[in-house]
Specification:
This protein is an all-alpha fold and 115 residues long. It is 59% helix and 0% strand. It has a domain of 74 residues. It is built from 8 helices and no strands.
Length: 115
C-alpha cells in the first residue's frame, strides 16, 4: 500500500515550499473576514496554497489548477489532501475572492510575509 507521502519525491518544489513557508500566519490575517456561524468554510490556507500552485507552476486559470490538483499527487500533498479528499470546485476561489478578499490587502500582506 502506498501513501501520498511516498509518491511525492523529496526534491519536489512543493516540499521545498512547505519546508520554507509556515502558512499558519494566514489565519490571524483572515480571522475578521470569516464567520463562525453556518457551515464550515474551505480552509483559507488551502485557498491561498491553491494560488501558490497556480502561479508557481504557470497554470493559466483556476479551473485548470483545480483539474491539476485532482490528478497531481504532489499538489494534493501540498494542500494536505488525501487520495479521496474532494477538491473544491473552481468557482470556490472566485466566490471567496469576491466575497472576502477583493477589498483587502490580504495578498499583499501574504506576499510581504513570504518575502
Amino acid at each position: 500500500m502506498l501513501t501520498i507521502e511516498q509518491l511525492v519525491s523529496q526534491d519536489h518544489l512543493v516540499r521545498k515550499l512547505d519546508a520554507a513557508i509556515d502558512f499558519s500566519f494566514i489565519y490571524p490575517l483572515v480571522e475578521d473576514i470569516y464567520s463562525t456561524v453556518g457551515r464550515p468554510s474551505i480552509d483559507p490556507v488551502v485557498l491561498i496554497k491553491m494560488t501558490f500552485i497556480q502561479y508557481t507552476f504557470g497554470i493559466r486559470s483556476m479551473r485548470k489548477t483545480i483539474k491539476e490538483i485532482e490528478t497531481n499527487m504532489a499538489y494534493r500533498w501540498f494542500l494536505g489532501f488525501g487520495f479521496h479528499t474532494e477538491v473544491p470546485h473552481f468557482s470556490t476561489f472566485g466566490k471567496n475572492y469576491v466575497r472576502r478578499f477583493a477589498d483587502t490587502d490580504l495578498f499583499e500582506q501574504i506576499f510581504y510575509r513570504v518575502l
